[in-house]
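User: For my dataset I need records formatted as: sequence, then structure tokens, nothing else. Please produce one.
Assistant:
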Amino acid sequence: MIRRGIAVSAGALALVAASTGSAMAQPASTPSGGPNIHQARNALLHGLTWLSTGYRATVPTTKQCIQNAGVACYSPSQFETAYDMKRLYAAGDSGQGETIVLFDSYGSPTIRADLATFDQQTGLPAPPSFKIMAPVGKIPPFDPTNSTMVNWAVESSLDVEYSHAMAPKANIVLVETPVAETEGITGMPELMKAENIMVDRGIGDVFSQSFGATEETFYTPTLMKLRYAFENAAKHGVSVLASAGDTGSANYKLDGTEVFRYPTVGWPASDPLVTSVGGTQLHLNQAGNRTAPDNVWNDIPIGIDAAGGGGASHVFARPSYQQGVITAAGAYRAMPDISLSAAVNGGALVYMSFGGLPGPGFYIVGGTSEASPLLSGVVAIADQIAGHRLGQINPRMYAMRTMSGSGIVDVTLGNNTFVQLNASGKPEFTVPGWQAGRGYDMASGLGTVDGYVFAHALAH
């Protein structure tokens, strides 16, 4: 959905999609100690937050982002090193023959050109095939003054560029739908119908969903009827992933502006047929090597009211693969299942040039909307290694948790407690979250991954 949070601008950077319209804030100075937080609200897509890097046509370094934006940024090469993907590529495993399908309302009008520029600037090959499909209706013309469309274009850019970055030789399909997903059922019927069509047509081995709505905003019987696409995907061996959310332990009410003041989770990430992908924060040098262990993503300390989603479902019972796992969710489904990079302070560099932005260039983007496409690339390569679709990966993944050589790396630092900040960045209220610790927890799930080891363990 379109999330709301504190918009960020720093240094020579301009605020993107300020307030709820298309007006752009003027560049602001950055005080020492962090990014400048504008006293404005920014429409965020599923917690998506982004900063300009000065409209650079070339990839900025991490040092330049810290100096100019007050936060770290990472390029594909750094993610590839951090997640041990380069050993896969060296062995000839880059996702050849596999297809990743990404689902986004509206899409981006410049995604083909932007992906080509992204590849050129980051040294990636073009994907063997990149298709854009709209199977459930014509997409409305892009309106750069419509902040909802701009947000979805950012989301589409992130999804395409970083699924491709992790599995550079996999085919990519961007499926666009004509109705914006918000809270509750709005936009969901179109997305589920699109997913079901892709399954029926045999298009796609791994589905990634960077959207979601709070369980409490659905009428439960209606929610259950929307699951048909996931049931069909399971029958056909398609792996389905979803972002766990970006407001930590809290999630939005039906109005999309206020959060529930008690722990909640979002669907489809809460669905037992879906792999729920939570968020971590990476600490990398320019080479992509870790300078500190990963922790649970929580950017609230730097004034962005966003953190990795997680908690207990209020709808779905504990699935069989979580039996025997201490989850603190009682008889209910616990999420996330696994976590990857999502922090804004350590965000992904995404190239975008569509209208509604301050200018074409690389932007720093964060959110579990980043984590799901990152994992989709790893799963696609695991499919390639196995020589067949892996389908639902949760049963295998939870079984792997006690194995040596699983590629699952425990995350034991941080929490996903949500603190509502006002326009001045001051705390208004807190929704208690979950603390990372040894083993499974509802802040990071099973942990994060070593891509090389995890892909091989998942495939065998």
